[in-house]
Amino acid sequence: MLVVDLGKWMNKILIDWGIDPKVADRFDETIIALLMIAIAIGLNYLCQAILIGGMKQYTRRKPHLWNTLLMKRKVFHNLIHTIPAFLVYALLPMAFVRGKDLLLISQKACAVYIIFSLLLAVNGILLMIMDIYDGKESMKNRPMKGFIQVLQVLLFFVGGIVIIAIIVNKSPASLFAGLGASAAILMLVFKDSILGFVAGIQLSANDMVRPGDWITLPSGAANGTVQEITLNTVKIQNFDNTISTVPPYTLVSSPFQNWRGMVQSGGRRVMKNITLDLTTLQFCTPEMLDRYRKEIPLMADYQPEAGVVPTNSQVYRVYIERYLCSLPVVNQDLDLIISQKEATMYGVPIQVYFFSRNKVWKEYERIQSDIFDHLLAMVPKFDLKVYQYSD
């Protein structure tokens, strides 16, 4: 009532001064509206100081997960912004008693402000859910960010429709119904988001990729560790420290290699060939076998099967297997295969296949290099030669 009396008093003074009544009406209503806005802003600061200040104090004394995240994501901040907006909305009819058009415009502005503040508050709650989800150890391997981004898109899309409906004075339902006609355009605009959402569900449901996985794309676009999975991109840090970003649906629609199984297994595979000179293969004589037993400790107890005359290549393969079995870095529980492949114009390949217990890239390369240095150096001990091309 105080606001109404103040408005009547100001209006009477302006008319007494000789100002046109219509201008006087607009002027005093504008002054009162500005006064109400000033009061609302003051009330907003007061609420922020009392409520948010109290919440901060409570969070410092009892820092629980929920109240810490509520403060971090500014959920209360945005909700408190609606208090003065509701107050102004309720008092506007008292300010604009005569100006119905200005009253309608002002109420629409307040309604839009209230809805936008509520959207920010709900968005903060969604971000809280993501923080809580990511904080759980059992959920870290499930990318949640993409789903939260989808909900954010839907939230602001619906909120935007409601705001537009308020501005144009239409029912939100009628606007949503009208969008059916423009579905093709919406599909085009949100194509990447829709594909990313569907791909994110497939990646997560089938456990195809997780943050922290080492993946390789055949195209060479990426070879490194997955840093982040979002609605529209998968961020990969390559081993040269560059960052590659690929759409999630690329990982669904085309093949890629995920090395997670190797990391979680008991070893990392080593598969290399040692190519022997075909002209140096021969049957072993008793003297050759005796020399091998004396000069090579791992072959000291070697005895060929009864009635079998082994070749020096065969004895060398036995040595490779015994040597690998003697190394702690080789996982004996996984496959260890030494085989001779089909001879070519470049010689006879001996394929060495085993698993290193150490899977760290640097150590893995050092281990396999040391092993093959030794195996290559032992080739002459068995009266063999490694094939080396020469003009």
UniProtKB/TrEMBL annotation:
The keyword Transmembrane applies. It holds the Pfam family MS_channel_2nd. InterPro entries: LSM_dom_sf, MscS_beta-dom_sf, MscS_channel_2nd, YbdG. It is found in: Membrane. Residues 192-260 form the Mechanosensitive ion channel MscS domain. GO terms for cellular component: plasma membrane. The chain crosses the membrane at residues 31-54, 75-92, 112-134, 146-167, 173-190. Keywords: Membrane, Transmembrane, Transmembrane helix. It comes from the Bacteria. Coiled coil: none annotated. One of its GO terms (molecular function) is mechanosensitive monoatomic ion channel activity. GO terms for biological process: cellular response to osmotic stress. The keyword Ribonucleoprotein does not apply. This is Mechanosensitive ion channel MscS domain-containing protein. It comes from Bacteroides caccae CL03T12C61.
